[in-house]
Amino acid sequence: MATDVIPADASRTRKQREWQRRETLILDVARRRLSESGMAGLNMDQIAAEIEYSKGTVYQHFRSKDDLLMGLAAAATDSRVALFSKAATLPGRSRERLTAIGVSARLFIERYPDHFRVEQILELTQIRDKTDPERQRRLAAAESRCMAIFAGVGRDGVAAGDLVLPENFSAENVAFGLWSLCMGGFTLVMSRPLEELGVIDPPGSIFRNYHAYLDGLGWRPLSGEFDYGETTARAEALLAERPET
Amino acid sequence: MATDVIPADASRTRKQREWQRRETLILDVARRRLSESGMAGLNMDQIAAEIEYSKGTVYQHFRSKDDLLMGLAAAATDSRVALFSKAATLPGRSRERLTAIGVSARLFIERYPDHFRVEQILELTQIRDKTDPERQRRLAAAESRCMAIFAGVGRDGVAAGDLVLPENFSAENVAFGLWSLCMGGFTLVMSRPLEELGVIDPPGSIFRNYHAYLDGLGWRPLSGEFDYGETTARAEALLAERPET
DNA sequence: TCGTATTTTGACCCAGCGTCAAAATACGGT
DNA sequence: ACCGTATTTTGACGCTGGGTCAAAATACGA
Known about the structure:
- By secondary structure, chain A is mainly α.
- Chain A has helices spanning 8-37, 44-51, 55-61, 65-87, 94-111, 113-124, 133-159, 171-191, 202-217, 228-240.
- In chain A, α4 runs parallel beside α7 (133-159) and α5 (94-111) runs antiparallel to α9 (202-217).
- The interface between A and B is large, with 53 and 52 residues.
- The structure holds a DNA duplex.
């Protein structure tokens, strides 16, 4: 009976595929719960029930609840990196590409609000222990890639003479500034009723702040001498493709 | 025997004082634990043990663990407001006072790192329910005061002709930008090894980013035409007084 | 068909939050 | 000084939810 003899290799991969599918399933369920009802709503027993496997099985994928959170963060950062790299391919001047990255930061939050929530939660929950080192490594690598994308654009700007970096200020420092502005801005927008405090159009304001900062650094062309609205539209078109999770 | 007849009024206040003392004690212990070992290290039983009262007594001050966290946040924001208001009194041009506020944001983190940690944790932990409405009100009021301080400086800047606000952009929007920059910046500094990612002198970079942003808005005098180093030194001197908790 | 390796299961342990009836204490009146 | 009432404090207890592990189920090869 040759039919029931499945090559060990194929069997292995089929199993691996199923395992992978299940891991994704766990992450999806966890992400939804976390985003819907916060940390309080994330419960290992419920996750197990929802995916129709036992708790022990969940614990074979993730060694602890924290590790599961870390898994969510890694997935989130991966999708962010995907969006960023795409944005950085926008044809045009360095600051236009930077604009595209800014747009992608906004799109990231619009498209994957759950991922952003997770990133935020991880931001301030000192986890690190009790989590799989491999997952930690993956997260760090993804962050590193984000930085590298920025730094690349920055170097191009310097090379083209559009940007002159101050002393002791690298392209990564600029990235740090923009990152602070976006992260801080979106965090505040999501956690507080800013309109009530007198802030007009907070989300739009983030974009404006982004450009004000770049203007302040003297990154040419300045927003007064260029139509970044058009650039934004092009970036949105570029990033509209492939709307998958 | 008139001596054992203590006026009801005095008795009441003595009790109130003791109660207040105990509340402060609880908050101090909780803050230290939280800052030292994160959420995992914050434990109602241990707090009770450490202050040498029973758990029930702790629960008379705070209706839940979340409520205790909210209490910590309120205390943190209060001390921030104190620092901000002081900073806003620096004599000089509007942007100098803004510089002083920036300095106070840094000092806040240096002086009360525990408070900052707490604010961060609260930032992303959806609590609100299960907490005393009065405490919520107090927290919102303190945030509102921070905004008001900024907005006041902004209005002065506009009045003096040092700042021209774009359309649909209020002084509060500027505050929002600076707030994002500082909060995001300090959060990143505290949570990640930025040097490893290529960022030179992250804390100093926050200050530079702050001024780059203000330059971008065209808030005069621009950093190229004024010695804000001197302003910073003055602000530090002003804020050095009264180093109490 | 059977024995071994692997995977899955869920009962179980325990930490920790929040409750509440009982104990302790304070206080006012006699 | 004594007692009764009001207030405060206590800690045992209930219960939820994270994490473990021996036993059951399943897969696989001979």
